[in-house]
């Protein structure tokens, strides 16, 4: 099952993609340059930077080909060659960004991540950096037939729904669900405290509810633990300890580990299942999951993904 393509790629995105080596397992565009956000005018969106992520099977080979085509995109690190760039890519969130790149009359930035690193993040939420972006609407530009990647993309969406269920009350609206999902990758993110609009999650969700529905409606309809009243835009979930335990056991490994480290005192060394059963019976189960879901973005991840382009780049 492939991740749903939310709409046609559009000429402007295909033209951008044509500038790069085509050996891509997945390429998508995301952010305010692609999807309208609340309070942003259409004209403003057209001027926003276009953001892309490219997943590649062989990072060294891809950077080698890209250096031949687009050497000016890279900072001074280009002098060290594709192997060193690939090594730097492996730090932090496992993604290497070239930023402030002029392309077809627009400013773009693009991140390169290995397919294996992406699959690991999608399945286990090791950093929730790219996995978090793929829990929100994106514009899929190309996706190959890698079965492991396709399964991981769907697993990431199911995990987002499960985590959100644990943090929501017994009855809630679809918009509540999508707000919770969209907020997963922002919890604990210093950018939501310093320098960015704290209402960002709401601004993302409200104008894009139909896109969220396209991503998640099949998952919600097939989920045995939810009553999905699509015509009313309402959902009801099983909040019994048994239901919550089932959901906790379905969470990604990294989130389970974070939850257990919050609950289990040092030295007890209880197994994960025993601790999650205790959490399932806790009236504050949702709060514990929320605390565990707050991604701890390492300084290397922040630097790799968000630093401005080196001022002496050419």
TrEMBL record:
One of its GO terms (biological process) is cardiolipin biosynthetic process. GO terms for cellular component: mitochondrial inner membrane. Its EC number is 2.7.7.41. It is found in: Mitochondrion inner membrane. Its cofactor is Mg(2+). Pathway: Lipid metabolism; Phospholipid metabolism; CDP-diacylglycerol biosynthesis; CDP-diacylglycerol from sn-glycerol 3-phosphate: step 3/3. The keyword Nucleotidyltransferase applies. It holds the Pfam family Tam41_Mmp37. It catalyses: a 1,2-diacyl-sn-glycero-3-phosphate + CTP + H(+) = a CDP-1,2-diacyl-sn-glycerol + diphosphate. GO terms for molecular function: phosphatidate cytidylyltransferase activity. It is a peripheral membrane protein. Keywords: Lipid biosynthesis, Lipid metabolism, Magnesium, Membrane, Mitochondrion, Mitochondrion inner membrane, Nucleotidyltransferase, Phospholipid biosynthesis, Phospholipid metabolism, Transferase. Its main location: mitochondrion. Signal peptide: none annotated. Catalyzes the conversion of phosphatidic acid (PA) to CDP-diacylglycerol (CDP-DAG), an essential intermediate in the synthesis of phosphatidylglycerol, cardiolipin and phosphatidylinositol. Belongs to the TAM41 family. This is Phosphatidate cytidylyltransferase, mitochondrial. It comes from Gallus gallus (Chicken).
């Amino acid at each position: 099952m492939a991740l749903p393509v939310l709409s046609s790629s559009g000429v402007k995105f295909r033209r951008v993609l044509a500038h790069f080596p085509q050996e891509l397992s997945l390429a998508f565009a995301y952010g305010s340059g692609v999807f309208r956000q609340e309070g942003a005018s259409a004209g403003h969106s057209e001027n926003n930077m276009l953001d892309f992520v490219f997943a590649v099977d062989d990072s060294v080979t891809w950077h080698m080909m890209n250096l031949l085509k687009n050497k000016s995109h890279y900072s001074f690190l280009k002098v060290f060659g594709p192997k060193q760039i690939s090594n730097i890519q492996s730090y932090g969130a496992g993604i290497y960004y070239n930023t402030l790149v002029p392309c077809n009359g627009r400013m773009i930035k693009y991140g390169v991540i290995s397919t294996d690193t992406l699959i690991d993040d999608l399945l286990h939420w090791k950093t929730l950096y790219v996995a978090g972006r793929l829990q929100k609407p994106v514009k899929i530009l190309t996706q190959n037939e890698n079965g492991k990647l396709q399964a991981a993309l769907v697993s990431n969406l199911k995990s987002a729904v499960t985590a959100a269920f644990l943090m929501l009350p017994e009855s809630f609206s679809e918009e509540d669900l999508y707000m919770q999902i969209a907020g997963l990758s922002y919890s604990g993110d210093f950018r939501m405290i310093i320098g960015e609009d704290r209402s960002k999650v709401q601004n993302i969700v409200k104008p894009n509810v139909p896109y969220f529905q396209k991503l998640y409606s099949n998952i919600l309809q097939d989920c045995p633990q939810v009553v999905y009243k699509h015509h009313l835009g309402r959902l009801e979930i099983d909040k019994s300890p048994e239901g919550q335990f089932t959901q906790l056991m379905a969470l990604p490994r990294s989130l389970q580990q974070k939850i257990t480290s919050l609950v289990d005192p040092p030295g007890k060394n209880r197994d994960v299942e025993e601790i999650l059963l205790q959490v399932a019976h806790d009236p504050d189960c949702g709060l514990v999951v929320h605390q565990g879901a707050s991604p701890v973005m390492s300084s290397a991840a922040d630097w790799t993904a968000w630093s401005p382009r080196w001022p002496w780049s050419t």
